[in-house]
Specification:
The chain contains ten helices and 13 strands. By secondary structure, it is of the alpha/beta class. A hairpin with a 5-residue loop joins strand 7 and strand 8. Helix 2 packs parallel to helix 4.
Amino acid sequence: MTSILTQPRFSFEQPPAFGEPVRRVRTAWISDVHLGTRTSNAEALLQFLRDYECGKLYVVGDLIDIWQLRRGRYWPQTHNDVIQKILRKARKGTRVIYIPGNHDDLLAKFYGAYGNITVQRHAIHRTADGRRVLVIHGHELDTVVQNVKWLAFAGDVGYQFLLSLNPAINFVRRRFGLGYWSLSAFAKQRVKDAVSFIGRFEEEIVRYAQKFSVDAVLCGHIHSAAMRQIGDTTYYNCGDWVETCSALVEQNDAKIDIVKYLPMAQRAQTRSVKMNQCSANAEEADSVRRNELVARTPAPVQTQAQPNTSLNRA
């Protein structure tokens, strides 16, 4: 156990650049996609699924937001494409393990194996170097979700409201040449109660995992990607595809990396800001060149008109 703990277990990996070949990894984990909501970044997830091929894919809950679908139907083609992409990976040999969360708990009625896809309550994943990792969604340790369902629904409505404000806020920011900014992410990072909840949640998850005699625990649920050591247990959270657009991947040497993609709205706004900056820089450079050209051009010689002496002689 001591030798395993001293080895580096995780790092951050940049997504493949445009034109790079597909990256092959041993395992991938995604969670909290919330298909069926307007705030799901399905396009970014599709890009991740195109960029990475894996032997095993864990869907760690809340792939589909049944809560939101009950309130109103929203299902664009990109959300259907995500489902089709996962099914296509399963047909081509990827083993898919689906662990339902609280937003798609309806699927808990269908535990079992369906070809290369397995639906189960939790899983024990064994890494390439032999470590045991408990994989759960995480809502099992959320006392609000378990005991006060109406408050969990109210909190979800409030969170969706904050997310719905992001487009309007960033429309104004674009007018001033500013980059993408998320009100909901800011509130989650700055509000004292939210920060303390995340800390308590992580500690409870680790304490719960100790019952399974594992080396690590991996979950989703709180939309906060993280990797840290808590006592003798490594805590992993694969984040979400609403704001952080993150996933975890295990390399063939057992190292676990966190991969982050830019949300499409943020990517477009960042590209717009960069284009505006490039345009402004180009205009400034043109102005400097014009000024230098004017400075190098000699001033015209002023000539004085000669008097017409022939008329005077006449």
